[in-house]
Specification:
seven-stranded antiparallel beta sheet, alpha+beta, single chain, 8 helices, Jelly Rolls, 13 strands
């Protein structure tokens, strides 16, 4: 459960980093599933930044009966999201992000709601949970945010390289007033951030990969109009707390 201080930090800054959400054994199981042939590889594609470097991404909207579904429906994640949004939520989509050593590209400044808005979602009552599968550092291109930017509202988005990026002039104006924070995070930690929080990351020019699993949620009161959007707007059935460990044998992790 989140502390009052963590909830207040999220309300103020639009993000909060929670350490030790998942154990080293659970992270090892997730990493084994990221690299084996399966969901994370079958849905994979690459997006280039403004310089031409690319990061790999796998994305899906269903909640499957596998280790990824166990994380998406983990009570450690879902109950924290419910606390931060003060209401019940449903799964929007999840993704595995792969920033390979020396070649992993940047992610340009954007808000997730900047393009989710076009899915017919009326309110930014949406939240992402980024789980660090590797230690995330400045050197390997950790996420960086503009603290308090979730209170600015939605900015217009267009194309920046091969990605969706926010109005760069307005982003720089926001940075001048609010600053930038690098969200360095140990493996197993979870970064929760608001759908309107500006975030980006730099290229990974280090010798170490940066891999992360990101679960995204929408408030059940905020179902998109017109049948658009991602995921099925149904309450989440929470997984048992040891659900990830049950997949250890399948990938040979002890």
């Amino acid at each position: 459960m989140l502390s009052l201080q963590q909830i207040e930090a999220y309300d103020r800054d639009g993000h909060v980093l929670v350490p030790d959400v998942f154990t080293p054994q659970e992270i090892a199981i997730l990493l084994a599933n990221v690299t084996k042939d399966g969901k994370a590889t079958q849905h994979q594609f690459a997006l280039k930044d403004a310089t031409g470097l690319a990061s790999k991404l796998s994305l899906w909207s269903d909640v499957s009966d596998d280790v990824f579904g166990a994380v998406t429906t983990s009570p450690r994640v879902v109950n924290a999201v419910r606390m931060l949004l003060r209401e019940d939520v449903y799964h929007w989509h999840s993704k595995v992000m792969l920033k390979e050593p020396r070649v992993g590209g940047a992610w340009e400044w954007h808000q997730d709601y900047g393009y989710w808005y076009n899915d017919g979602v009326l309110y930014p009552r949406m939240i992402s949970c980024m789980i660090a599968l590797d230690p995330a550092t400045k050197a390997n291109g950790c996420l960086k945010v503009v603290p308090g930017s979730h209170l600015l509202g939605r900015f217009d988005h267009g194309r920046v390289g091969g990605q969706a990026g926010a109005d760069q002039e307005r982003v720089q104006a926001a940075i001048e007033r609010l600053g930038v924070k690098y969200c360095e995070a140990p493996a197993g930690s979870a970064l929760f951030f608001h759908g309107n929080t500006f975030h980006s990351s730099e290229a990974n020019l280090s010798e170490r990969p940066r891999r992360a699993y990101i679960c995204c949620y929408n408030a059940l009161s905020n179902v998109p109009y017109g049948g658009k959007g991602h995921g099925k707007p149904v309450p989440i059935r929470l997984a048992p707390d040891d659900a990830i460990l049950r997949f250890a044998e399948a990938v040979g992790v002890k």
